[in-house]
Batch of 2 targets.
Target 1
Amino acid sequence: MKTMRQSTLQTLGLGDVLDMFRAGRLPADAGALVDRVFGEPAQRGALVISGCNGIVGAGKMMQLGSRLDPFDVPVVGLDFPGAPDGIAKQYPGLVRAFGKESADRMMARMVRLTYDGKRLPESLAAFRPRFLLEAIPEILEIKRAHYDLFRNAYPGIEIRSVTSGFPSSQLGVGIAHPAFPHEVNKVFEMVEPQPSDVTRLFWAIGLIPVPVSDDWSFVLDVLFCGITLAALRYHRDTNMPVWKIDKYVRKHVGPNPVRAHDAIGTAGASFLTWSCLHHLAEHYGPLFEPTPELVGRKDSGLSWYPPDHFRPVVDWPLDADGEADLQTRIVGPLVQMTALMLHENRAHLTHLNAMGELCAQFRRGILAVLRELGPEKSIRIVERYHRSHPEAAQTAWHADALARMEEPAWRQLYVNAEHDGKVGVITIARERYNRDVDAELNRAIDWLKQDGIDRVIVTSDFHLSTQMVGADTGEFFPALDDVDEGFRVSESWSRTARRLHGEFAVSVGFVAGKRCLGGFLELLSHCHYLVSVDDAQLGLPEVTLPVVPGMEGCHWPFRKCPSGEWGRLLHLALTGKSVHARDAVGWLVDFAGPLDQALACAWETVAGGGNGLQRRPFAEGPLADVTSRLPNLPPTGSSAAEVARSAILATIRDACGAPLADALAIQAKHSAEFMASAVCRRGAVGQERDRTQV
Amino acid sequence: MFPDARIPYGTWGSSYFPAWQQSALAEVNIGQFAGEAMGKILGHRRVPKSELDYLVIGSTIPWHWKFWNAPLVASCLGERLPGYHLEQACATGLQAVIAAGAEVQSGAHDTVGVLTFDRTSDSPVGVFPERRSYQRTIPLADVWDNFGFDPATGNAMIATAGRAARKYRVDRREVDDLALYRTEQYFEAKRSGFLDRVLFPFDVLNVQGKPLGRIEDDLGVRPLTSDALRAMRELDTCVTGGTQTHASDGMACLLVTDAKKAAALSPRPEIDIRFVAKAEIRTEPSLMPEAPAIAVQKLLERTHLTMDGIAVVKNHNPFAVNDAVFAKALDYDWRKMNRTGCSLVWGHPQGPTLTRILIEALEEAVDLGGGRVLVFGCAAGDVGIAALFEVGERGNR
């Protein structure tokens, strides 16, 4: 087995993705792991979440309760008698996700007990606690005493802390630090000597455990607290109100860090941020020193943003120089903090990169940003930042950690490739296609070709990317004003997709998650075969944004589709409504089935086994009268979508009506021209640009 | 007067003063605007708001939530400061600076922000239930009804100008010439870029965070001609639409601190701005325009100075008659005053008027290489206020 870089599944002790296809099943079985963590069904023990009424505790009661529900694991919430009920607030979300009947059943299974902090309730024993997820306040002594309480009562109990800052070495237990919003975010930073059954169980029930090293605040809160601190420091130095700084941070990095504190709950969130930074500053110096404003907020709990009746009156626009200075003071500390984490090897680079995107609203991963800047520019930004904060230059500055950007782990942050000498697997660890994914996908293809691999499966990474939702619309912002830029994006991404068709003897697109939409469906459709789990949603939602599909979705699928089924493809593209994979066999996908069967089918197909699929004919010449198969379409409901529907129909007509050699440019031209139209600028992409680009 | 107090050079600023109802300032809570605007001015001046430890605010027209006073405005500035509100009609903008000097001199506070503001547009209407009054319940529009009626004398503001003009035998032609000259002084200061050093533009947002308007000019100021002034109808003796000020909206701010901190905060630490003296008088009923001249006479007497020893003379002059009376009373050439403009021209938002005048005067003195700065003006109730400052070089008196 050869890999471009270490697979992230290996960090969980789950092997390689290629092995999974070869075995025809996932490397971890949820039922077996439940038995190992909670005991056999007859002796099933409980998950206990202490601090269950807090934001973290209540969210995890819902998330873990719902995911462990099929395995009859009792979930017991523990809190003080006077703690305000945080669990009932979660009930509406549970109803939305699972329906009232299931939600009621799950709630009925959740047991809530109270205690005084010193003695565990006697009734807890009846539930046989096997795993404690501790979510109590961030006070070291209290946490340690809490663990002793449980260990004395239930020797051998597995304990994980949700702490956002304390290392495992301080607490004496493993860490499972979850990301906000806790009821839905699947990411947990895991600290443990070796990947445990708990970690593998989390993965097997659809969560995203991410191993990190045992260093203060791990990865996520260095990034999140770090960017918050950078914003607050800029506020302190310049008086610019935090709401405006947030807008600039959103423009240049992605999140609204200060607003997020108010959204989470100012008092608790500010305390946690202060706690992380305070301990980081004690350990690493002034780079992390909390500002007095943060110190004050942790005690007062006063919102960072002004109340509604004091919505800001005075705007604070910056000129180009001012904005460059702000960018330096926001990004500079972030680069320095990232260099520190790299120096300490805090996580697999793909994890370190993805954490900001998955959990802190970063528009792009921090390492992807640094990689684009290059080491020299990255270091210069930090040095410029040090002019405004010279104390930060004294400690914790590891410029040398930025010097290895040419290594595979840096170059393949999102896309990995593995092969066994005959078959390759390309995995994509990002849910939205962007220029980073495109570049890395090309490098992965090059790498496989270089090793003589001409059979490939293209899929998600079975870890960080649980679905493939299409193109990152932020990539289209420049194209809203520049038709050439729109053409360039569409044309270059389409050429990448065509490599999957033209440069391999066999290519299989594999949909493992719950949806594959837009650009990703266009990409995987370029493979010779498309295999999917049967309940995955497949769709081309572009018409609803509205944009015109840019990766050949308006002609490529038609060339592989029997003419009698063109109406279904037209419906897909012109309504934006998705279909289940099981309903798209024969005209969009080649096989749909349960995950194990789909894995096996993909492997047999790519490896050339006897049970492989029959390849659908592919028409390279012009297709006649595609649009004459237009089915009755429901109204889109908006004038913009009607315009887009017409544009997509025209694109289908022109691109299908041309030979394959010409169709790419035709599609790209239509896509680019629509992107630069007023309709598109007023639509979701334009609104998103206006909202996020100050 | 306050030997330990200083005004740090170049840490001040003012909004433009758009005439009432002509800008987005007519739509805002002016206390909130002032707080946010001061934060931005200080930011531009590279003074972190955290340097302040007290705030004296001044305004004359009730604004929403004024009960919450300086602490609320400080919150809008972005800093939780204590402080108080001070009000003395049109003297507010100078009195607030004096009060801040007293706070520093007393040792009560280290760095005091002075923030004055008012919105004459849509001033609130107060309802005063007074059962022993024959009207029982009296509604009062805060700006116009007060201008029109001094309860102590029964006369309007404008009547005091007419009475003073008659008492001093002021000539209408001279008043017209004076008003024309003042306008030319203003436009020359604007052309020279002088005003850009003290006035800040502001983009005002609506509640949705969208642009409501940009405050970037003293809207309502118009060039005058001699013929136009001559042709204007006289409203009272020597008072026409062209020889009196107009209501406007705005804010102004500066800092007062000790000498060491002033040097640390100022972009030009070598400049030393001291408080020298203050005087205040109340003249005979309905002769308000002569009150400032009398206050200045008192100030000069007490400091044993003459007008020859003053480098910059600048005043709040709601009526051109004020300056004509001052010139006669002090035997002083009114052309030597108000060289960078005055409230007669750029309008009168009441609270911040004398603060902006002081800021402009200090900036002018720095241009001249230093010297004594005399700032004075009239206020409701036939009051005159005058204060003397000295702009020098640090270490030299």
Target 2
Amino acid sequence: MSGGSYYVPDQSRFPIFMAFSLFLLVMGASSTINNLGDSTSNSVYILYAGLGCLFLTMFFWFRQVIKEHLAGLDSNQLKQSYVYGMAWFIFSEVMFFAAFFGALFYVRTFAVPWLAGEGEKGIGIAATELWQGFESTWPVITTPDQGEAYELAKKSMAWPGWDHALKWLPLWNTIVLLSSSVTVHFAHLALKNGNRKNFNILLGVTVFLALIFVGLQAAEYYEAYAHYGLTLNSGIYGSTFFMLTGFHGFHVMMGGLMLTIMLARSVFAGHFEDHDHFGFEAASWYWHFVDVVWVMLFLFVYIL
Amino acid sequence: MSAVIENHHDDHHHGPAKGLTRWLYTTNHKDIGTLYLWFSFAMFLVGGAMAMIIRAELFQPGMQIVEPEFYNQMITLHGLIMIFGGVMPAFVGLANWLIPMQIGAPDMALPRMNNLSFWILPFAFFILLSSLFMEGGAPNFGWTFYAPLSTEYAPPSTTFFIFSVHIMGASSIMGSINVVVTIMNMRAPGISLMKMPLFVWSWLITAYLLIAVMPVLAGAVTMMLMDIHFGTSFFNAAGGGDPVLFQHIFWFFGHPEVYIMILPAFGIVSHIIETFSRKKLFGHSSMVWAMLSIAILSFVVWAHHMFTVGLPLAAEIFFMWATMLIAVPTGVKVFNWVATMFRGSISFETPMLFAVAFVVLFTIGGLSGLMLAIVPADFQYHDTYFVVAHFHYVLVPGAIFSIMAAVYYWIPKWTGNMYDERLGRLHFWLSFIGVNVTFFPQHFIGLAGMPRRYPDYALQFADWNMVSSVGAFLFGFSQLLFLFIVLKTVMGGKKATGQVWEGAKGLEWSVASPAPYHTFSTPPKVD
């Protein structure tokens, strides 16, 4: 509810610069992807230029917002706008992952059994003529076309049983990421109690755990490609595995970057007060969100 | 930068900046609303020109004007441009102009992000339209871009299409977050949720739908991109995926999207009918509950677009009943509009003409939707011109008539000038006749079995196609009259009062016409 005067910023160059950066970014990305394998193509430089402009614009835009905040221009009402805005942004991210989880559930429940001739829609030409001998299992290691068009994976990333649990990277990844959610929570508590030193340390530990997670994830991908023969080309299991964990990993990197910036703001600029730190809180919300996504991933991609 | 901050309080009450930068750098909700509305008008004319090409080709059986490949590109771009470039930005423009004024807020909650949401769009549509000139031509798989047509058999420009959809989606999500935050956080004291004007309510629900489903569309095009270029098999059975999966994901986005294009229309029409009936709107809270029900149901009806793909019987029955259930809240709304007019002192100025036509013609479109919801009947109607007639009845005399009604209704508030009533009515009657002559015969040729999306057709469909094309040209060229009327009103005309319409209620009518550059810097008192 509106109470007093609300800060309406003056004209700003940032938005149109950002729109133009996005334009460069997607033009560059599209032409790069269309020219993959063509070494004479320079389109990747447009992509880099777009990325560079995007980060620069974001840097100056956020800097401006922080300055306005420090100048006392934003009322409690404006802060409330940021709170709502971040919450709805996270909701949109939830829906983005929902599309990929929906695809996973659909292929596991319907598409793969039907292709193998099971269930109400499984009878017919698909099972008897096209994909003879295809059996419905999850993970799908042998694709319906028996790997003619798709590379055959030797092994999946699924739960290997208790005997091998300690050597199973996803378990360690889960421990690392869940711990980082705990540390970022205690960092928040330390900040609320006015304990700057503990805040910095705990936030630093969180960022460190984020780095470990990304490192372990990279190791897992290397293992998948180099030793398991599991790639993006391995049929639907590879598709869902890499897209879900890949987008999650990308979000971990974004969240980790946000937390790193918050850490730098606290350490080098002394930003954030015990009662006034929504910038950090928004980043920590985002961090808890990527954590919850991981728990879902762990359950539905790795365990079940 | 810090100088800007220090000077802030001095220049808070100034008017717009001079020159081009006013529009490039603006953070003012009225400027951004104007930009959105002009952009959507431009896209409406571009998409309309494509419709003219389509109808010209269909004027007679046989191929006469364009190549089939180009025809496919036209139907694809016509759909994408009208939906993402025409209807949606027009509603966002209206939201920008009206929501802050209707709830007594000084501006949108996040003004700079508001500007960003707009300026992404011209770039996105530049990319989409430039695909016409690329090798292999523009996307040619229909606006629904079903796999595998859009993955295995698509032109290279599909990559550009995918990324332009990505940034359009980002624009929509940011715009919607802005709307939700504005409505939740910026209402003047005293405006409780149930006292909110219906246009604001309709946009709160629309924005929620947009935030929920635009990311799903982003997911769908991302899977397409990966299937095309990086070897995944989401939509390929050989790798264990399923082309039908694409349709599920697409329509999980697509059906709420349909309501995104009609809910704001419900809000607009409620205001206009109330004003020109000079009566309190019948059933304000039931209108809100009806919109909420429609929005919630929109998430569980998507597969009614896919009855013929071979769904399990249980799914067909569930989606049939869920779809029919939507007729109940929609019926409540139509009933309330009619009940508002009942025994009112009605006058038929141009906005009211469009609003009444909306109620009648949207109901026709809704009823043909009910016919399509019946599974066994849909097996006959699926992908025929009956479907084309259905969704054009809800989109053209539905969504677009409501936008035109809104423009006539609020343009005196925006420009300070009254539009030319005589020309406005002429525009209405030409559009009304044009729309019905175009789309009503498509019911007949659809029921007779003419499939949609073909550039040629069998001889027995020739007569009604010719009639339909004549209607389309009438409707299309009438919109140039609309452009003329809008420009004439912007340039000058009879001065409008603050109240503008005798029966108008609401905060936006309490300020002068044209509305000052900044309204409600401090919140108004509302009882």
